[in-house]
Amino acid sequence: MDYYSTKITALIEELSRLPGIGPKSAGRLAFHLLNLPETDVNRLTGAILDAKHNVRYCRECCTLTDGELCPICASPARDHSQIMVVENTRDLAAYEKTGKFNGVYHVLHGAISPALGIGPADIKLKELMVRLQGDVNEVIVATNSSLEGETTAMYLSKLIKPTGIKVTRIASGVPVGGDLEYIDEVTLLRALEGRVLL
Amino acid sequence: MDYYSTKITALIEELSRLPGIGPKSAGRLAFHLLNLPETDVNRLTGAILDAKHNVRYCRECCTLTDGELCPICASPARDHSQIMVVENTRDLAAYEKTGKFNGVYHVLHGAISPALGIGPADIKLKELMVRLQGDVNEVIVATNSSLEGETTAMYLSKLIKPTGIKVTRIASGVPVGGDLEYIDEVTLLRALEGRVLL
Q1: CA torsion sign, A26 to A28 to A31 to A35?
Q2: What's the pTM?
Q3: CATH architecture of A6-54
Q4: Most buried of the four, A138, A147, A194, B65, by CB within 10 Å?
Q5: Do the interacting molecules here have an ipTM over 0.85?
Q6: Tell me, which fold does domain B78-168 have in CATH?
């Protein structure tokens, strides 16, 4: 039984397909949209469609971007011989926020997961190997520290080492400001294994 | 500083204007939308625009609906002499879900709030008074049990009583299944005042 008219029900159904939005939030969002001025609604749908139709993979690093080349790959100020490999565009943004990495990126759009049936051919590995034929000194593997991320890091290391290019992995350990008491054992062991001389 | 391209940033900004969606969720939603098949994205924006352009106030009860008249006002099976007054369309839906009310509704789209500068002329009161010139036996005031809802109920009662039409208010008290221990004092007092003979 529908308590709302057809078009309102359709809108609530569409909104509740979005991740993290349950039926209650979808209802709240739907009525919020219905009460917004039309220009605001058009701006929202316009932004969605504009991004959807115009955002594509960067020709170089495969990150999601507006044009052919992303601003990082297009920048002569970045060190193009140092490539940081990340799983997705949001991980790239996380490293960009630090403001301390001056190399370029490669976005895999996923990680190898035998459990989910995601193999090396399903992520942007081929594109990375093509880039390595250029002038590259180091590949920094910054995939997540999950099972999939580690599997991908191992695979990359085996693939790249024969080319003679240096392959490194970002350190795992105790997060800055983290309280040892609340940190899982695997991380604590990693931190111990990765200890450095003071 | 932008870590994403212009169109992605614009999309995230638009999404983070929505209620209950912070910058992090907006980012997650944006990349979800960018990864969706185009048909799904078009269906979402289509549902938003279709609802926005076609949903209007019901000519009778002012609820949000697709056509001229909402299905409830259009139904000959409902008792049109009994009008339940609610603050918004979602409150109407809440009562419809009970399946036990056979009258019709009137949606005020708000409640009187001197603090927020919302007066009687800012909600759909005039439209209600017009309806009362017809064949109406009872007005059930089902505004919220908040300060604004109570103010509106008092105002309605004073306005309608002189017409001779019966005005009632839904009961306040302890919610079914509610544990007395966790219920606020005002509600407990209301429940006491509204006690009925067993």
Answers
A1: negative
A2: 0.77
A3: Orthogonal Bundle (1.10)
A4: B65
A5: no
A6: Dna Topoisomerase Vi A Subunit; Chain: A, domain 2 (3.40.1360)
